[in-house]
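Notes, p. 3: input format for complexes.
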Amino acid sequence: MKAAEIRKTFLEFFQSKGHTIVASSPVVPGDDPTLLFTNAGMNQFKDVFLGFEKRPYTRATTSQKCIRAGGKHNDLDNVGYTARHHTFFEMLGNFSFGDYFKHDAIQYAWELLTTQFKLPKDKLWVTVYSEDDEAYEIWNKVVGVPAERIVRIGDNKGGRYMSDNFWMMGDTGPCGPCTEIFYDHGPEVAGGPPGSPDEDGDRYIEVWNNVFMQFNRTEDGVMHKLPKPSVDTGMGLERITAVLQHVHSNYQIDLFQALLAAAKKAVDEAGAGDSDADSPSLKVIADHIRACSFIVTDGVIPSNEGRGYVLRRITRRGIRHGYKLGARTPFFHKLVGALVEQMGEAYPELRQSEKRIVEVLKTEEERFFQTIANGMEILDGALATGVKQLDGETAFKLHDTYGFPVDLTADVCRERDVTVDQAGFDAAMAEQRRKAREGGKFKMAAGLEYSGVPTVFHGYDHLSQEGAKVTAVYVDGA
Ligand code: ATP
Ligand code: MG
Ligand code: MG
Ligand code: MG
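Output follows (478 residues plus magnesium ion):
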């Protein structure tokens, strides 16, 4: 089954159970200041769960575009290191707004997995929130999952393991206990079952989370009961596709093949020659082009703050991986065509924005290629001394003068088992801000124009939505 068929099967299965198929919302949430990017299928229904908004349906199903590269759910650092994390992924979900609850949710999930997708039951493990006896009993007595494969997990207060069966979209908002379904990819892969100390491997992969939405957490930490118990589920399309295509890694599924090939071709032509087709860097590039393209589609351009800075960080991280393989000229924007071919049908907005995405990414890429070589030389020089921690001053200089976001620097360091002195970096940043403020005051006193932070004028970029407006771009440092 191709990913496109799996997406369709999911939506039609829930449609047959009375759910309305609702389109994905944009990756940039329209009116939710608590959220950097859409990180789950439930985001667009937040107000419905809270009881503020009524819809003509009480059951919905979606395939939602998600970004997890900042905020509460941030997987940027996982990409390139695990078989299962992306910065952009599609989340398949079914939702009940005060309609069905635990019994139906669990049974629907089991039915889809074992009868439609025909997964072997003995490869499926489930976790339940430690105090949720009801969910435990449904899995064990009604569905028939043996006790050996049901794991009770707490809310991770001790922070000991990764698992966390109390789901929250952010520090505030709808939340509740959850039950998760894992697939065992077999003993050839390293990793332990959920709840065990080595659960963070890629053997037992979490494919589906069913959240029993019951509370709204407010800023003061208080949990208020929702008007009606509800259901919110999320299954990673790429993860379930890997299972159904009998491959272990998300990067081996059909959706990624053309992208990985396009990444290799572009990087090779940009100077890498013949890069290793299995290199994690190609996976990072294939992942990041998806995130960057969908973010640009929704109107964000690279900048030094907020969403624009997240976009810049992902773009530059992708470029650096190409540079690592030997690319010396812009290559990243050349993947957009392959991406549109893969995903343009499911997400027509991508096709409509193709030209603009290429333009925005190319501009960013040309800019970063001006400084990346010198920055890498400095970083390589600092790491050649054999330090175990990169000092904050150097990390800051790379950020300020060479346009290296600190997580990019950390990514390079991590490849060589070195950490970054984040506190030192923060201090250097604070010091520069302080100086800038003083400089600003001085200029004001001298009757000159106030400039706030030092900016370098980098010319005009034609980057606006309609392609007509001209935007002046000022960049801190590089
Ligand atoms: P993990 O523990 O593997 O990081 P999660 O518990 O953070 O996943 P949820 O917030 O429960 O994930 O999201 C619901 C589902 O979305 C997951 O069960 C998984 O299938 C999918 N998913 C979550 N994060 C990612 C990601 N970064 N890339 C691809 N799929 C993801
Ligand atoms: Mg996670
Ligand atoms: Mg998890
Ligand atoms: Mg989860």
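Residues 180, 206, 209 surround magnesium ion (ligand 4) (CB under 6 Å).
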